[in-house]
Amino acid sequence: MKFLALTVPLLFLLVFLYAAVKKVRVYDAFVEGVKGAIPLVVNIFPYIAAMFMLTELFERSGLSAHVCSFLAPFFEWCGIPKEIIKLALVKPFSGTGATALMSEVIEAYGADSYIARCATVCYGSSDTVFYVGAVYFSSVKNQKLGVGIAISLFCSFIALVMGCLLCRIM
Amino acid sequence: MNGIFLAIFLLCGGYFLIFNPASFLSVLLGGGQKAATLCLSLLAVYAVWSGFLNVLTKSGLGQKISKLLHPLLKKIFFIEDKEALECVCMNLSANLLGVSGAATPFGIKAAERLQGLPHARYNHTALFILNCAGVQFLPTTALALLAAHGAQNSAFIILPCFLATLVNATVGVILLKIFVKKDK
Prior knowledge:
The complex is a heterodimer of chains A (about 170) and B (about 180). With about 170 residues, chain A is an all-alpha fold. Chain A has 2 domains: about 1-35, no CATH class; about 45-170, no CATH class. Helices cover about 80% and strands about 0% of the residues of chain A. The mean pLDDT of chain A is about 85. The radius of gyration of chain B is 20 Å and the shape is globular. The two termini of chain B are about 25 Å apart. The chains are: A mainly alpha (about 170), B mainly alpha (about 180).
């Protein structure tokens, strides 16, 4: 893990040095880039807000618990432990929600348990589908991502089944 | 997106109406609050990475990196435009390295840029699918959490995670090729 910690500072130092050698005004370029961050966040805020309100509603209405128990037999049949079904359902909507759930699962079952490993694979095997869809394409007019969303959700599920299988046999 | 949003919203709203009408508004406000907090921290993250990325682009290093990924991307995307291709490349490489804070600004730029170009729908879907697969060398968040909870062998999950994302991306690209046609 030491190596991992080195990558980011090294990346910054190397790029800034290279830029200086190429006679780029590093400070000006950096500030100009930072300026771009403000409209970016302003643009995505409405989409994030709508998405978060929806996930809160879904979670707090108790609907998510119902969906979990409804899907449990099918997930277990596919080899996904029932302890992580909720995590698998939250993952496409909310990255922070999934992080919190993963942390709970690891704490409850122990960091070296099969369940905890499945949970981390569930967390690591895909990205937050609806979030990516909302944020990345916030500035695209008449976006048609319907097929893309269906494909991504399906692939995430396949990846999850694969991941749990790998955790069992490895 | 519109259909999904409306369907889930109405369903949840109905639940609240029947079981717990008083807390409906406070739940919505809670969601808004979370979004506002997240956006503030995102502003900090994007400030760092957008600044860095602008230096990277200005130095010409960005083009060099994206050239490395060209052969692979040519098979998946249909992009002729240089700048759009560079954005897509940087977006995917940032994802690979696990710095999603850096990936997002590039992803948004790429999506914007692809809009006016030929095969926009196909390319958008491809970008979306690859980003959702989130192919990543090291699942940094998961590793950190495992280590924090005292895992003896947290490195165990690296391979299953990587293979799973790879399966995710591969199946995604295959389905993409089958179901989403290039625009004429």
